[in-house]
Every structure is written in C-alpha cells, then in structure tokens.
Amino acid sequence: MIQFKQVTKKYGDTVAVSDVDMHIEANEFVVFIGLSGSGKTTSLSMINRMVEPTSGQIFIDGIDHQTIDPVTLRRNIGYVIQGIGLLPHYTIYENIITVPKLLGWSESDMRVRAETLIELIDLPLETLEEYPNQLSGGQQQRIGVARALAANPPVILMDEPFGALDPITRDALQDSLLELKARDQRTFVFVTHDVDEAFKLADKIAIWQYGELVQFDTPQNILLEPANDYVVELVGIQRIESARLAALTVADLASKDAVNGHKSSVTYPADALVSESMRSMLLDEASLFPVLDAKGQEISYVSKEAILDYYDAMHAAGKQVTV
Ligand SMILES: Nc1ncnc2c1ncn2[C@@H]1O[C@H](COP(=O)(O)OP(=O)(O)OP(=O)(O)O)[C@@H](O)[C@H]1O
Description:
GO terms for molecular function: ABC-type quaternary ammonium compound transporting activity; ATP binding; ATP hydrolysis activity. InterPro entries: AAA+_ATPase, ABC_transporter-like_ATP-bd, ABC_transporter-like_CS, P-loop_NTPase. It comes from Suicoccus acidiformans. By secondary structure, the chain is α/β, with parallel strands linked by helices. The protein has 2 domains: 2-235, P-loop containing nucleotide triphosphate hydrolases (Rossmann fold, 3-Layer(aba) Sandwich), CATH 3.40.50; 246-317, CBS-domain. Helix content is 39%, strand content 23%. A 6-stranded mixed beta sheet has the order 6-7-8-3-9-10, with helices on both faces. It has a 4-stranded antiparallel beta sheet with strand order 2-1-4-5, covered by helices on one side. β9 and β10 form a beta hairpin. α11 (237-247) packs antiparallel against α14 (304-316) and α13 (274-283) crosses α14 (304-316). The chain is elongated and about 80 Å long. The model has no long low-confidence stretch (mean pLDDT 92). Adenosine-5'-triphosphate binds at residues 11, 14, 16, 34, 36-42, 208.
C-alpha cells in the first residue's frame, strides 16, 4: 500500500533519512519510534509530500506518488499532529468538514458525516456548534482525529498526536483509536516517543536510528529478536525479558538430566507455553513433569526447580503472576 524504495532525504549535509526500504501493507497500523532526530517525522511527511525525498521513490497503491498532485494526495491522506491547529474562528462542525467541503460534498452529506464522527469520538452532538477554545486539549485532539477521518481517507498519518495530553486522556484516546482500527479498514502511520503507546497500538513497529530504519516488524518479533543494542535500549530490557519468558515452551525448559524424582501423572505437549502450564505444575506435588512429542512419546522432563526459577524470573520481569 505504501512502499518506500531506497528513499533518502538530505538537508544540506544532514542526512535526515537514509536509503530506506519499507513496505506498509493496507490496513496495517504502523508506529514509528526512535530517538529525537532519528528521521520519524521526515519519513512520515514524505508520504503526503509535505517533504520531498532527495532520492528514491514512494509508491501508494503501486503508483509513484511523484505523479500524484500534492493537493489531491493530501486530500486522500488524513493528517493529525500534536496541537492539531483547529481554525479558531470556525465552529467544530466547520473544522471537521474542511476536506469534504473542498471535495464538493453536499451539505446534508457533510452534516451526516460530522454527526457520525462526533459520536464516534464520544463527544456530544452540541459540540459541533462550539468553537475550539471552548474545548479542552483532549477534546480538541479528538476533533483533530475526526477531521482527519472526515473524507474517509484510506490512509491516516499521525505525528505525536497525543504527545501533550495527560496519561488518562491519552489512554482513552488510544482506546478510541483501537476501536476505530477494529471498525474500519484503514492504514495508520503513527509517530510517537512513548514506547508503551507503540506497543499498545501497533501491528508493526518501525524503529529509526540516525535516519536509518533499523528494524520493521511486529511488536512480538521485535521483542523476541531485537536487531541491535539500540533497539534493546529503546524498547527496554524488561519488556524484552518478559516477552521472552511469555514465549517459552515446556520443551525449552525441559532437561534430559532431570530424571530423578516424583513424576507427575499429568503430561505436557512440547509446544505448551510454560506461562500457561506453570499453575498446574506448581500445584502438583510431583517434582518432574513429562514432556511429550507430537507422537505422544515422553522426550524429557521439566523439573519443579525449573518452574520455580521461571516463576521468579516472571516476577523480576514485572509480570503479574498469580497461582
Ligand atoms: N526542515 C529541516 N531543515 C534542516 N534539517 C532538518 C529539517 N527537518 C529535519 N531536519 C533534520 O533531519 C533529522 C531528522 O529529523 P526528524 O524531525 O525527521 O526527526 P524525528 O525522529 O522526527 O525527531 P523528533 O522525535 O525530535 O521529532 C534531524 O537531524 C533534523 O535536525
């Protein structure tokens, strides 16, 4: 859907984005993270041609976007930024329908769309007749999201849209976004400095470092196989450790040396997750738990000590563990 091919952006001698290849699928929610100055906003802004690449190409639905007029392109791509810039002398209704109006929608279609959107973002209908300065920052940010959705664009770009909000409002807006994502087919590209926000929202995370895309993968794959030390530091060792523990199977924890002890009558398939088997193992009086291969043959045992060590490690990684 959105494809970067060897895209580079230079400002004089500064390489803001360096030789990036990236393929964002339709309906994916992609989140960009990385330290300040790593190229996130520049990359986002090249998608709707607010910034032009120095070299390389960007394709939208297979069409080189240099061949699409920037104004047409931007009308088809929703855009939300921090402190969204609502027009102060326009009512919320007028702010929301900016793009549909440019596209020549009828008054009744625009009214229906604005009313649908205001419900979708959980604000009362009367809000449509108010002015931006009558709303809180969080409410204005919701309007920014509604405005970006107004003409029903297939792609929405969001640059730190919730950066200035308190954690509770921010959490609520993230939940609204997840609802939107579940409800409609739409591609999101979202920049944030908040790693928790990235892991909450993303289907895929793009990690930027010095203008390079160092990793682009699902949150789970990034945690299980971080590309380098920078990624580990950025996403946090505790989150990585916790994901690694959550993905361990009983076969990973089993040892052929664990043979002496009271064997349990309960057996465990090799691919069972330790996190899901732990409770029954801890409550079992046995000290060895047989692990079966796909044919039902005992291949090894998990010891009670290994399970207790696992339990401690889960605690240390900050996982809530109840048995
Ligand atoms: N208009 C510009 N003129 C000159 N240099 C620029 C311009 N825009 C960005 N840069 C430089 O390009 C690099 C990447 O900037 P960019 O804003 O894309 O990073 P970022 O990861 O979005 O940062 P932040 O998280 O602080 O917003 C930085 O070194 C920045 O100084």
